[in-house]
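Support case: adenosine-5'-diphosphate complex. Customer-provided input:
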Amino acid sequence: MSRDAHALAWPAGPVPAGAPLIRLEGIHKWFGDLHVLRGIDLDLAQGQVLVVIGTSGSGKSTLLRCIDMLEEPSAGRVWFKGRDITDVRVNLNEVRTHMGIVFQAFNLFPHKTALGNITLALEKVLHMPRAQARERAMEELAHVGLSHKADNHPGQLSGGQQQRVAIARALAMRPDLILFDEVTSALDPKLVAEVLEVMKRLASEGTTMVVVTHEMAFAREVGTHLVFMDEGVIVEQGEPKVVFDDPQDERTRRFLSQVL
Ligand code: ADP
Ligand code: MG
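Agent response - structure generated as follows:
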């Protein structure tokens, strides 16, 4: 049966009692012969800030993309709010309206203003009336400290400001969680702090987040849980401070000695 052939209605409302917001169960991903994810099990509770660290090529982005099913796992299941979203009957477009993702490249539409970039999905995907969409977009621009840039085009904004618009765009959908994939890696070092500051604020507001990052100070300070990946497996995980101060695995020690 092809995906979406018999779409299941998405259950609105809260996470069922006792269920994690996200559960990854035995996730494997092959790209041809390349075995990129080699059995990932992971739970994410509401309000958690999960930080994922690891060397380049260890599978962090692929893991993130499996959470919102931008990549379909080759094996294993992804549960979201108690529903198996690897079930072919699940309408992934609908599921994705409940998960935000922010990438390293800001992916803003260059011909639209900051405001227009945010209202687009609200109007086209959520079918929100224009006035209401503008109101919500302005709210989220204020949230990231960019009310005064609403009418500017991306080309008129710094990299840090563009990334904050991209975050505001994700927030405007009022998702259950937001996935961040190395969102500060392409930024001029002096612009990194303003983006991390926004993410820190979101965390303090209780936003559920999965953050792939090389910013170890942020990971330590803001993360509620840390995962270290190497060659497609979770080598070590735990409370960030504990993993940083007392890594148990030789691979974790080697990685941390290179980045700290
Ligand atoms: P990370 O984000 O940790 O750097 P990735 O998840 O991007 O790692 O990539 C893990 C491995 O999978 C790399 O070897 C990468 O080249 C490979 N890979 C990622 N995406 C694809 C794809 N779409 N097709 C083929 N190989 C891919
Ligand atoms: Mg990556």
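The chain is about 35% helix and 25% strand.

Case will auto-close in a few days if no follow-up is received.
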